[in-house]
Amino acid sequence: MCHCKDNCRQGRQTCDLGWSGSKWLNCQKENIMLGRPTIQENSYASSFNSGKAVDGRIETFSKVQEREHSVWWRVRLKRYQTITDINITMDTVSSAQYMVYVTDESLVNNNYSLCASNGASTTVQRKFVLSCSRALTGKIIEIHAPPHIPLKIYEVSLMSCAFGTYGTNCNRLCPSECHNTCNKDSGQCDQCPVGFTGEFCNVTCSKFCGANGCDKINGQCFQCNSGLWSQDCTRFCPKGCNSCQRETGYCRDCYSGYIYNGTTCVQCPARFHGASCTLSCGLNCKAGLCDHENGRCIDCKHGYFGDHCHENCSEKCLNFSCSATTGHCSHCEIGHHGEQCTRCDRGYFGEGCKSTCNYCKLQVCNNVNGTCFECEKGKYGSFCNQTCSSQCANRTCHQNGECVSCRNGRYGLQCELLCPPIKCSACDKESGVCLECHLGRYGSECTEYCPSECRNGCLINNGSCENKAVTTFPSKISDTPKFKNGMQNFLILAGTTILIVFSIVFLTKICKMQKERQISTQASTRYRGISSIIESSSVNRYHSLIEENPYENVTMESQTIEASDYANEGACATTTDDLIDKHVVAEKPFKKYGRFVSFDDEAPRRQESRDSASSTPYESIVIKDDSMSVSFTKY
Questions:
Q1: CA 330 to each of CA 320, 340, 413: distance values in angstroms, whole numbers, following the listed order
Q2: Residue 58, Cβ density class (10 Å: 0-12 exposed, 13-18 middle, ≥19 buried)
Q3: Parallel, antiparallel, or unpaired: how do β-strands 29-31 and 159-161 relate?
Q4: Membrane spanning segments where (predicted)?
Q5: Which of 158, 182, 396, 626 has the fewest C-beta atoms under 10 angstroms from its C-beta?
Q6: Which range (75-84, 187-196, 501-510, 609-618) has the least confidence?
């Protein structure tokens, strides 16, 4: 890569600022201090700040005002470097001893990090190459002046060959196996990828070296993980020490719970904890003791619990005694139980567990508000203080008051509704649809009649029967042997009853017919006696009655016949002696009397009895010995 101002054209070359070396190899020697971050103990003036010593200009300088102690100037490199020579231009004071250190991030200056010391015999500006007593690896370079001596630096430079080159003027290329990194003097590989070491970078650094890896030559760690020290970072820092110097194990930082006593880290004294032991243990820690690192109480005072004993034991804990770790009560006051005695014993609820679960099943309820989990039989409601409906079967209901099942003939959530009233034996609890009908009925309300061919019932849903010979009735009990035997007994009893009734009616009929014959014979004899005394003048008077219909009632004084004739069905008659002032009415008389057709002087003639189907009855007719008077009303 070219580092020449004229882009490495043929002829005389001029190197870029901060670069030098062979112009034939394009100026491959770099000042790795140029423009790097710097700092100094104090500034003589703002124009003499620390950066003037690495700006590449010899006419500028940085200056540190003298003090009663040693003053210093520092530069930080981009990466760790193995350093042997440093170029310095500075003012020196006669008899003053100047020190140059190469160190790591620990910034500890001692004999391990001392590059060289240089004394001066006169006070002059000097430009010199300071050679370290041995090769040192680091990324921080410090220059120290003795007390009461100022520090005036014009320029500090550290020359290093560009990647892939080596030699005095960096005019030679590194071997290919070095991956463009080799010893700047010998050409041997001196830089390996982070985490590897060895001549050919094939050896792994110690796993405790941290992110910066180790030296390629000797495998020494550049920096150790926290809490470790030594060249391979395998030794632990002193107890309580968070980090220590890699080379010596000297403690630089203490863990929380420890304090530095000037030599090492020691544990915090009793009742204190935290970083540098600046925090006090909690007030409720028993005896004031706590963990020196995190401040957790070793134990709590009586009545407190928690990591820092900030929580109060439950007031229901007997004598306020509880576990310092969990807060669980050792014993509870009477009427309470649970880990913190906050739950009431069975049968009680509310503040202080003073209220009782009266109607809850087994007296178990919510220990806060008293609501029941389950009710005793016959009760419902949140507190089981309401009684189930009397229409619930066995007076049993759910906790919301809904009946478990209904009494026969009822339905609804609380069985408050009646099943359809016509022939419905039982109905669905929710919908009221009939589940069982009386024999011979079907339908959702049992209002339909089974077909005639279904002799013993039919299906409740559609009225059909499985076969006409054997009728099926769609109820829950219709197919059982008990139901079939009951039907047979019912039919036998009904047949016997009908036979007895028919026999009684038949015998009664025969008796009445015999009675009517006797009455008819007596009436005929008496009627002929009456007709002989009727005068001939009556012939014309009643001649218009020839075509009239039968009478409803006929009364004859002296010898009287009374008859009743209903709706052209005839009448039966008897004498007044037989009637004994009572009216006798026959349901179906076998004889009807006709009207008088004519009367002559010799003898009256009576119209023969005839069928009265075409006649219209009269309400009444009265016949006396000497004359006949008729009163009638047609139906």
A1: 9, 9, 50
A2: exposed
A3: antiparallel
A4: 490-508
A5: 626
A6: 609-618
**Token code pair at residue 168:** 């005095």
Gap between the Cα atoms of 340 and 77, Å rounded: 64
Buried b (16+ CB within 10 A) or exposed e, 351-367: eebebebebbbeeebeb
pLDDT per residue as tens digits for the range 302-332: 999 999 999 999 888 988 889 999 999 988 8
- How far is Cα 204 from Cα 163, in angstroms, rounded to an integer? 22
Residues 6+ apart with CB under 8 A from 438: 423, 424, 425, 446
**Could you tell me the residue ranges of all domains in the chain?**
33-157, 513-629
- Rounded to whole angstroms, the Cα distance separating 301 from 309 reads 8
For residues 422 and 443, what is the distance between their CA atoms, to the nearest angstrom? Answer: 11
- pLDDT digit string, tens, across residues 66-78: 999 999 999 999 9
pTM comes to 0.33
The secondary structure of residue 173, as a DSSP letter, is E
Distance CA 384, CA 397 (A): 11
Q: Is 442 exposed, middle or buried (0-12, 13-18, 19+ CB in 10 A)?
A: buried
Look at the domain 33-157 and name its fold.
Jelly Rolls (2.60.120)
Q: What is the pLDDT of residue 531?
A: 43
**Phi and psi (nearest 5°) for 517?**
-60, -45
Burial class (CB in 10 A: 0-12, 13-18, 19+), 213: buried
